[in-house]
TrEMBL record:
<feature type="domain" description="DhaK">
    <location>
        <begin position="8"/>
        <end position="348"/>
    </location>
</feature>
<dbReference type="Pfam" id="PF02733">
    <property type="entry name" value="Dak1"/>
</dbReference>
<feature type="domain" description="DhaL">
    <location>
        <begin position="384"/>
        <end position="581"/>
    </location>
</feature>
<dbReference type="InterPro" id="IPR012734">
    <property type="entry name" value="DhaK_ATP"/>
</dbReference>
<keyword id="KW-0808">Transferase</keyword>
<keyword id="KW-0418">Kinase</keyword>
<dbReference type="GO" id="GO:0005829">
    <property type="term" value="C:cytosol"/>
</dbReference>
<comment type="similarity">
    <text>Belongs to the dihydroxyacetone kinase (DAK) family.</text>
</comment>
<keyword id="KW-0319">Glycerol metabolism</keyword>
<protein>
    <recommendedName>
        <fullName>Dihydroxyacetone kinase</fullName>
    </recommendedName>
</protein>
<feature type="binding site">
    <location>
        <begin position="50"/>
        <end position="53"/>
    </location>
    <ligand>
        <name>substrate</name>
    </ligand>
</feature>
<dbReference type="InterPro" id="IPR050861">
    <property type="entry name" value="Dihydroxyacetone_Kinase"/>
</dbReference>
<dbReference type="InterPro" id="IPR004007">
    <property type="entry name" value="DhaL_dom"/>
</dbReference>
<dbReference type="GO" id="GO:0019588">
    <property type="term" value="P:anaerobic glycerol catabolic process"/>
</dbReference>
<dbReference type="GO" id="GO:0005524">
    <property type="term" value="F:ATP binding"/>
</dbReference>
<dbReference type="GO" id="GO:0004371">
    <property type="term" value="F:glycerone kinase activity"/>
</dbReference>
<comment type="function">
    <text>Catalyzes both the phosphorylation of dihydroxyacetone and of glyceraldehyde.</text>
</comment>
C-alpha cells in the first residue's frame, strides 16, 4: 500500500506521540523534543530511534518496560538535543540505561548525548547498550558496522524495564540486559517493501514478483540478503530458523546453540506491519512446530506487532537462547520471570508458555457418532434418480464456478464461487461413501444438509443448511416421494427459511429464484416450467436494486451498469438446471 492518512508528514511523529499519550493513562509528552515518558522512581530505561517502528518505541513506555522513548522523524535518528532531554527526564538519580539498535545515526547521536549527560551528571551512572541481533548479514560483510538491531531489541527492553521496576540497582539491570542482548538472533522476511508517508510510490525499488520473497530484510526498507521464489510456510520457517540456529558456518554462527536437544529459547514472532494477523498466527504455529522438530524447547512465545517497518508486508523471527545452569551469570528462570512480569506499556504483547497441540485440541465425546437419521416413519424414494440428479446439479455448478466468482467479485465479496465447490465436493463425497440413506429420503436430505453445514461458509451456507433441514422436515408423514409430497416439502422449506431472513423477492438474492421455483412447482408440479420461472427470476436480478446480501453494500449505480445477475441466485439456477437435466428425461 502506498497511500497514507496523513495531515502533514513532517508532523506525523509528533501527532502519533500525542495521540498515543491521550489514549493511554500514565504517559506524558514533551512535544518540543518528541519524547514520551512516564513517572518512575527507579533506574531509568531509555530507548528510541526513528519513527515508523510503532509500537516501538513510544508504545513500549510503561511501568515494567521503558521509562522514556525519544522519537526521530520516520526512519531517522533523533538529534542529540532530543536524546539529552530524554536522558534528563529518565534520570531519577539511580542511573540511566540507554538501549538502542545498532544503526550508525542512532549510535552516534545517542552516544554523544550519553557522553554529554555523563559530564553534566558524573555522579549518575549512565550506559549505552547497543543491540545487534540481525543474523542475516555475514560476519565479514558487517565487520566494521556490526550487526543491525531488529525486533529482538524489545526483549532487552523488557528484561531491563522489569528489573528496574523491581528495584534492582543499576549494575544488576545493566548486567541482565547485556546478557540478553548477547543471546538473541533475529531474521526478517518480506513480500515487499514499505511506503513512507509523504513519499510517492511504495519505496520498493526491487519490484519483487508476485511469487517472490526477500529473506534478511532490515526495518528501514533495506533489501534482504536473498530473493527467492515464495515457498510454502513450513519451508520458509525452517530456512529462517537455520539462519539463527546454525553453528557450522563461521560467517553466520552468532549464538551458542548446541542443537543437541537441550537448547531452550524464547520465540518472538513479529509482524513488520503489513501482514494479516491470520497469517501471523499460522506462522507462529509453524515456527513452534519447526523448533519442536529440532529438539529446541520453546519456554515462552509471543506473536504480534512489537517492532514494525510502517506497513511492510512481512515478519521476523527472534530467538532468545536462554543461558544454561553452568553459565553462572543470570539464570534462565530469572530472565523468564522478568519477561513474564506485568507491564502497562500499551505496545507490549504478553508472551506465554506455548501449549502442545494435544492440550488445546478439544476431545469430542460424540465424535464418530452416525449422521442425522430420521427417527419417524421412513419416506421411500428412487435413490438412483436422486443420486444422478444431485450429481448433475453439482457438475452444473462446477462448470459455472468462474462465472459465479466473476459475478460475486462485482456484486459481493468474491467468495461465492469458492464456497460452492467445497459444498459440492462434500455432497459428492457423501454420495460415494455410502453415508446417504438409500431407503429413507428424510435421512438422506438431513445427511446432505449436515455436510453442507460442515463445509460451506458464509450466508449462503447457512441458508442452504436451514432450507435443506426444513425440506427434510417437510416430508414428515409423507410416506413416499410423490410430486405432491415434494411440492408440500418445498413450500414448507421456503416458509421455514423466511423465519430467518427478511429477504423477499425482488431482493437480488438467491431467495428470488427459490421463491419463483417453489411457487411455480406448487401450482402444477411441472418441473420444467418451475426451472424456467427460476431462471427468469435470476435474469431479472440484473436490474434489481439490492436490498439484502453483500450486494446491498455495493454502489448501486455501478452494480446496475455491470448488468450481472446475483451470484447466489445464479448458483440456484444452475442447481435446478442440473436436476432437470436428469429428472426431465425420465
Amino acid at each position: 500500500m502506498d497511500k497514507h492518512i496523513v495531515n502533514d508528514p513532517r508532523l506525523l511523529a509528533l501527532e502519533a506521540a500525542q495521540g498515543l499519550a491521550r489514549t493511554r493513562p500514565g504517559l506524558l509528552v514533551d512535544p518540543k523534543n518528541r519524547i514520551i515518558t512516564r513517572e518512575h522512581d527507579h533506574v531509568g530505561i531509555v530507548s528510541g530511534g526513528g519513527s515508523g517502528h510503532e509500537p516501538s518505541f513510544g508504545g513500549m513506555v510503561g511501568r515494567g518496560l521503558l521509562s522514556t522513548a525519544v522519537a526521530g522523524n520516520i526512519f531517522a535518528s533523533p538529534n542529540v538535543g532530543q536524546i539529552r532531554r530524554g536522558i534528563q527526564l529518565a534520570n531519577k538519580g539511580k542511573g540511566v540505561l540507554i538501549i538502542i539498535m545498532r544503526y550508525t545515526g542512532d549510535v552516534l547521536h545517542f552516544g554523544l548525548a550519553k557522553e554529554q549527560s555523563s559530564v553534566s551528571h558524573p555522579d549518575v551512572p549512565t550506559h549505552l547498550l547497543i543491540v545487534g541481533d540481525d543474523v542475516a548479514v555475514p560476519r565479514s560483510q558487517g565487520s566494521i558496522t556490526g550487526r543491525r538491531g531488529l525486533a529482538g531489541t524489545v526483549l532487552v527492553h523488557k528484561v531491563a524495564g522489569s528489573a528496574a521496576a523491581q528495584g534492582k540497582d543499576f549494575d544488576s539491570v545493566k548486567r541482565i540486559a547485556s546478557l540478553v542482548s548477547e543471546r538473541i538472533g533475529t531474521i526478517g522476511s518480506g513480500l515487499g517493501h514499505c511506503s513512507l508517508p509523504g513519499s510517492t510510490g511504495s519505496g520498493d525499488d526491487h519490484h519483487l514478483k508476485s511469487d517472490e520473497i526477500e529473506i534478511g530484510m532490515g526495518i528501514h526498507n533495506e533489501p534482504g540478503v536473498k530473493t527467492m521464489k515464495l515457498p510454502k510456510t513450513p519451508e520458509l520457517i525452517r530456512l529462517m530458523l537455520d539462519y539463527i540456529t546454525m553453528t557450522t558456518d563461521p560467517e553466520r554462527s552468532f549464538l551458542p546453540f548446541k542443537n543437541d536437544g537441550t537448547d531452550e529459547v524464547v520465540l518472538l514472532v513479529n509482524n513488520l506491519g503489513g501482514l494479516s494477523e491470520m497469517e501471523l498466527s499460522a506462522i507462529a504455529g509453524e515456527a513452534l512446530l519447526a523448533l519442536e522438530e529440532r529438539g529446541i524447547k520453546v519456554v515462552r512465545v509471543g506473536a504480534g506487532r512489537y517492532m514494525t517497518s510502517i506497513n511492510l508486508p512481512g515478519f521476523s523471527l527472534t530467538l532468545l537462547l536462554l543461558p544454561r545452569e553452568d553459565d553462572n551469570k543470570v539464570s534462565a528462570s530469572d530472565i523468564v520471570s522478568l519477561l513474564d512480569a506485568p507491564t502497562d506499556a500499551p505496545g507490549w504483547i504478553s508472551i506465554f508458555e506455548p501449549r502442545s497441540v494435544d492440550a488445546l485440541t478439544i476431545q469430542d465425546e460424540h465424535e464418530g457418532e452416525t449422521l442425522v437419521k430420521n427417527s419417524g416413519s421412513p419416506v421411500s424414494y428412487d435413490y438412483t434418480s436422486f443420486e444422478r440428479a444431485l450429481d448433475a446439479a453439482c457438475r452444473h455448478v462446477i462448470e459455472a464456478e468462474p462465472e459465479i466468482t466473476r459475478f460475486d467479485t462485482i456484486a459481493g465479496d468474491g467468495d461465492c464461487g469458492t464456497c460452492c465447490p467445497r459444498s459440492i465436493t462434500e455432497i459428492l463425497r457423501l454420495l460415494q461413501s455410502g453415508e446417504v440413506d438409500k431407503k429413507d429420503l428424510i435421512s438422506a436430505i438431513a445427511t446432505l444438509a449436515e455436510g453442507i453445514e460442515r463445509v460451506m461458509d458464509g450466508t449462503s451456507g447457512a441458508l442452504y443448511s436451514i432450507w435443506m433441514n426444513a425440506l427434510a422436515g417437510g416430508f414428515t408423514n409423507a410416506g413416499s416421494a410423490s410430486s405432491a409430497a415434494w411440492s408440500k416439502a418445498l413450500s414448507h422449506a421456503l416458509s421455514s427459511l423466511c423465519d430467518y431472513t427478511n429477504a423477499r423477492p425482488p431482493s437480488r438474492t438467491l431467495m428470488d429464484p427459490l421463491f419463483a421455483f417453489t411457487e411455480s412447482f406448487a401450482s402444477d408440479q411441472n418441473l420444467a416450467q418451475a426451472v424456467v420461472a427460476a431462471n427468469r427470476s435470476t435474469e431479472e436480478t440484473k436490474n434489481i436494486q439490492a436490498k439484502a446480501g453483500r450486494a446491498a453494500y455495493v454502489g448501486q449505480d455501478q452494480l446496475k451498469d455491470a448488468k450481472v445477475p446475483d451470484p447466489g441466485a445464479f448458483g440456484v439456477s444452475k442447481i435446478l438446471e442440473g436436476i432437470q437435466s436428469v429428472i426431465g428425461k425420465q
